[in-house]
Amino acid sequence: MIPMLKKIFFISILCYSCSSNNNNNPEVDTDIDPTPTPPVSGQNTISALEFIDEFVIPNQEIEGVPIGGLSGIDYQNGKWYIICDTSTPPIRYYEADIIYNKDAFTSVNINTMVELKDETGLPLQQGVVDPESIRFDSKTNTIVYSSEGSITNGVDPALIEVTPDGNQIKSFLLPDNFKANTIDDSSGPRHNGVLEGLSLSFDTTGYWVSFELPLIEDGPEPTTSDTESPVRVTYINKASGIAERQFAYELDPVTRAAALGTTFEVNGLVEIFEYDENKFLALERSFSSGYIDGGNTVKIYQVDATNATNTLTTEALEGANYTKATKTLLFNFETVRSQLTNNTVDNLEGFTFGPKLEDGSRTIVVISDNNFNSFFPQLNQLVAFKVVP
Q1: Are 363 and 385 in contact (CB under 8 A)?
Q2: CA-to-CA distance for 14 and 29, rounded, in angstroms?
Q3: Can you give the pLDDT at residue 44?
Q4: Nearest to 141 by CA among 99, 81, 71
Q5: Contact between residue 346 and residue 325 where contact means Cβ atoms under 8 Å apart
Q6: What is the structure's pLDDT at 43?
Q7: Which position has the higher pLDDT, 27 or 298?
Q8: How far apart are CA 102 and CA 371, in angstroms?
């Protein structure tokens, strides 16, 4: 395990809280977590991201179970939550201590594994879910996670709410066109292209889930040529459990052609985060096989869905008349590739806002899924950024 500096971290944060608030209130309650978590009113402007540091989590185990497949990450109230992308028991999420400052990571320790259960309280069995993203809802003190399911095996995607100890509370009702189509290949989700992204809504009344790839009836998968490849981002009211709104997000083309005689190419939306009303951060990842640098091109976009059409009742986006969300490039990981281990931008597919720095700046942490090194050696990679307002 990596050395922990948890006590030092909390002491430094509490000291910062005192120094930053004494002008207005000399009676500071140090029992209150001094690190606000988004959404935070008045702190929803993002003009740039500044690279802080990278940390590679070494291969290790908890209770004899390998740590890997780190597909989604969230930070709330001083705690970090990381979902494991596996359909093989134990199906799980982790709790971690991740500490960094304006210059570098100082300590990373994945210290707890929580096994996810079904509605009867039994551990989830093989192939029932394929977890992708995780969020801790501080309003309900529960965890929600998205699952891609397995389209080729007829397993529907899902959005599931659990207690912090992993017991399932409910599975949300998703629109019919989210379900696996086992009859023909004319419509429905694409295998491994379903519910990859998840965010609490800015007003905390619901959850946004996003597809990685277009529905078959919505358009083609991206290629190296420019295509019309929209993915659906859907709002689900957590009180009613019903989908109420949806917008379309247009994917970029695949960045690079596959190399060395290989042919696999893909680009998809792998994570979202609503940081203001109708304003999102989107993590988009292009992958092409045959590259020694990993083959990934990863970008973070700012997305504005204010004027986007509600496509919830639109059966097929291809050929339809509608307005997509707008997107603006915020950060391209190519600009820091040379500062990363082995010049590798790995399989980054999860992000979250983290604790504030001492100067009050917000931070973002991005995490990669190493696929348990199933295909070739990959990294459990953490990358931290300072948010420039």
Answers
A1: yes
A2: 10
A3: 82
A4: 81
A5: no
A6: 60
A7: 298
A8: 30
Does 9 score more than 80 pLDDT? no
Taking CB atoms within 8 Å and a gap of at least 24, the contacts of 79-84 are 79/136, 81/134, 81/135, 81/136, 81/143, 82/110, 82/134, 82/350, 82/367, 83/131, 83/132, 83/133, 83/134, 83/145, 83/350, 84/131
DSSP codes, 306-357? TT----TT-S--TT----PPEEEEEEEGGGGGGGSGGG----EEEEEEEPPP
Q: pTM for this one? A: 0.89
Residue 54: CB atoms within 10 Å: 19
Instruction: Give the β-pairing of 296-304 and 65-66.
Output: unpaired
Contact 82, 134 (CB under 8 A): yes
Per-residue confidence (pLDDT) for residue 95, from 0 to 100: 98
Which tens digits make up the pLDDT trace of 332-388? 999 999 999 999 999 999 999 999 999 999 999 999 999 998 777 899 999 999 999
Sign of the dihedral through C-alpha 311, 319, 146, 382: negative
What is the identity of the amino acid at 253?
P
